[in-house]
Structures are given as structure tokens and as C-alpha cells.
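Checklist before submission:
- one chain only
- standard amino acids only
- sequence pasted in full

Submission:
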Amino acid sequence: MTNPIATNWLAGSETQGLAGKEMALVLSGDGKVCTVLHSSVDVEPNESIDAIWSASVRTRICDNLRRVLRDRRFFSEELSLDEEGRTAEFTYIAQGRDRVLLVARDTSRNRETLTRLEHLAYVDDATALPNREYFLAELEKIVEHQRLREGRSAVICCHFEGFGLRQGSVSTTHYDEILQQLGTRLANELRGANSDQDDDYERRSVVARTDFHRFGVILPEIENGTDAESVAERLTLALQAPVEIDGKTYRAQVHAGIGLFPQDGSDAPTLFQNANAATEEARTGEAGEVKFHSGTVKLRTLQRQDLEVELRSALDRGAFALNYLPIVDAVSGKVHAVEALLRWPESVMGSHSTSKVIGLAERTGLIVPIGEWVLRESFDQLKSWQDDGKPDLRLSVNLSMQEFSRTEIAPRMAALMLQVGVQPSSIDLEITEKMLGRDAVAGYRAMDALKALGVSLIVDDFGTGACSLAQFAHSPVDGIKVDISLVNGVETCERDLAACAAAISSAHALGLIAVAEGVETAGQAELLQQHDCDFLQGFYFSRPLTGAQMREFLANEQEDATA
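Returned file contents:
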């Protein structure tokens, strides 16, 4: 009898095989079907895969089954299904000693798929307005057009807040409805839904949701700043009008900033950045405030430019340094791994906070070459320690959002590891929940590519984001790092201890390791050990050390072990 799950899940396959669908099967090493999780074709347990795919595809699948069971590694590849050009991605995940989970997804590039991808790429789901990517692409076109004809344009950024989402007074469903109403209200205000007297530049405006709490408007052609200011003031009033949902009334506090072309930016990124800077300045005032990019905002922009110049100079001079923090086995107390920590040069930091410097590095794209320097330097250091008698030592390195999202991150890292001579199995890459939250599909695609190299993936700062461990159940993640904010309170707060214990237990249930960071006392270490935390890290064991100091630390540990 056909598995009812398989029949109902993706019924109606166009042809035998896949045809725009997906299937998930648990197979034995010889290609026998053990379990049908879901499928668009009739497949029964204990049957061979012969009836599903062509001979060439079957041969390749069987080869890959043996490979995955032998190497115990995640593997994925794309194969051609037939002469009509249909393709599918086959993902293999070892399940126990002799079982493999096979997930097959159709990757045929038809018009429907491309249209859907285009929609996802350029439309905000919550409001149905264009998103940030579309907005910036259109702004680029408009700026180029106005540059050629020496015209003027304006960007208005409207920031809204005050609904109490973080405090729990607004449900997620209601919040989406609020966003929809605000987006519609904004578009109608500009498009003249209630009047035929609106100026032409308003009807031709571009409206988008550019950030979580922000709308963007492009006025493609204006006479002067007064036109933009008048529109911005009207928009703030419109957005601050009450929103009624299910008998409840919600009000937003709205601030707006204006960037003018060409005086506030001769290119699209600069113009948009300066409009957002003006918005931040407006947020220091009362609700409804509208600010041009001028005065204090311009001064701050100059300060950021100076900081960017110094940051580039420091990178060129090789003025950065690395410290290392040991990660110890919770039971034995032996060093299991070391985490590489970037130390910014004093010439860059000055009176700036670390978060400000990192934010600038991310916005300017400098975080990518800085990240590559960290990888190369730390890989070299790891190889040196391993050659000194610590062959099993691991290295943990943090990835930035920009590094993580680069399509070439996996091949570049593979080339670097080969060049330095370190094994991928010695490397732990730390990513954050926020990275996955921005674009889950792209995030998991990046994780798959990195995991295929043989490195381990650790979710850092676990407990501070919106992700749950359940989201990692079928991902290539190898472990979590319980955030310091939870670890700090394990001795004094029962809730923090319970949260840590739950995170550790859940991680183990999913086959993941658990690391606790920020351990500063013997009591914290003991409690975490009692709750079966695998590894510990923090000032209780060591302060951050230079490469030379860490070599001495490891040597002393080795001497103590042999004494």
C-alpha cells in the first residue's frame, strides 16, 4: 500500500521522478527504501529506487549513498534528470550506521519559479510594497537620470515605532496588519487616492519598506527642498493617524529625514545613507519631527568618513592583532579549542565604541577583508600550535554577516585552509542567530556549503535571538554557545539556570554540543558541569592571550599532564 503521507503531501507529479516537487526518503546503503517521509510519486518501503529515477541517476545516487556512509558527512549536488533539461538537487544526510536521509528538490528553472523568485527578491511580504533591494535599484536609476539632466531628487525616510511589539502588547498577526495599513496609507497619500490635485512628482514616486521600522520614498524630480519637506510632513501626519484592528486602537510615533540630490549625495548609496542619518537626527526630537541632512548630521558624517579612512589605513598597515581565549572540556578542564578574538588598533578605536567601529566596517564592506585577515592569521597560528605538539587543538573563528552571505565564502575558505595546511575538521565557525533570521533560505544554503568543507558550525550568542533549537533539528549546525547574559546569572537566578539547563539538554537531544561562554566563577563552572555542559569558556579559566602567551599556556598544561 502506498504511504498516505507520500500521496497527500505532494500529489500530482507531472512525470515520474520529481517534476517541480520534492521528496524525502530514508534509504539503505544499497538503495532500498526504508521510510517514505514525503513524495510526489508512489513509493513503498522495501522497494528499490529503480522505479523512480533513470539508470544514470540511480547509479550516481548509490555511489553517493556509499560515500556518505563511509565519510559520515553531509553532501549535496545537482543532477540532470532527463533530456528535457529538468534538474534536481540531491541532499544526503547520514542517519545512523546504515541509513541515509535523501532529500530531492526540483531545481528546474521555469518561468513560474523565476517569477516567484523575483517577487521574493523585490517585494516585502508584510506590506506587499517593494523592499529595500528594489528601492535602492530604482534610486540608482533615478540618480543617474537626474545627473545627466542636472535635475533634483529627494529621498524621504520615515521611521515608525511605539506599538509596543517588544513589550508584547501587539501580537505578530496584528503587527502585520498594522504594517499593511500603514503601507497602504503611505502609498495612497502619495498616489492621490483621494484627490486628483497631487503634484506629478508625487504620483511618480517610489514607495518601499526599507527596514523593520522604516519606509522609504523617492521623489524622482523636485524643484527644491520645500517640495520634499511638504511631502514629508504630510506623510508623518498620515502615518501617525490611529490604526484600528479588532476593536483596538494603535498609534505610531513617526519621524522623517530627507536627503536631497545632488547636495546630500551624488550616488544612490550615499544619498540613502544620508537620508537615514537625517532620520536618526529627527528621532532625537518630538514625534512628527522632519529633518534635512544638515548641521549636526553633516558633522557626524564627516566623523564617520574620518573613521573609515583610519580603518582602511590600519588594514593596509597590518595594524590589527589577535588574542585567543581557551575553551576547556567541562569535565577534564583540558583545553579543547581556542577562540580567535580581533583586537582593533588604538588609532581606530580612539573614543569610539567597539559596536560603532564594527558597524562602520560592516556598512563600508571593510569587514570582509578584515575577516579574511583574521582567518589567515588564526589559521597560521593554529598550524603553529599543532606542529608544537597539540595536533588535536581546534580553532574557533567568528564570521560576520557579510562574510557569511558571500557566495564565494566556501571556496575561498577551502583554498586558504589548503594553503596554510590546516584540516577543516580542526575549524569551528561561529555564526549568530541574527544571521539566519535575516534570510533563512540563504543562511542554510551558506551553512550547507561550509559544512561540505568538513568544518563545524556553532551558533554563537544562543538565547539572544529569535531562533529556537527546533529550527536547527535538520540543519548542519554542530553546536550552540549559550550566551553570557544567561551564564552570568546561573548562581543567583533560578530562571537563568533553568534556561541554560534547557538549552544544554535540548542541544544534546538534537545531537549538538553545548558551550557556555562568560564563565567567571568556580560556582558557575560547577553548576554548568552538573547540567552536562560539554565545554566552558570565560575569564575563570583565562583572560584573552596573545599567540605567544597562548603557546606558553598550552605548554604549561602539557607539562602538568605529564608531571
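Reviewer check: The chain has three domains: 4-108, 124-294, 305-562.
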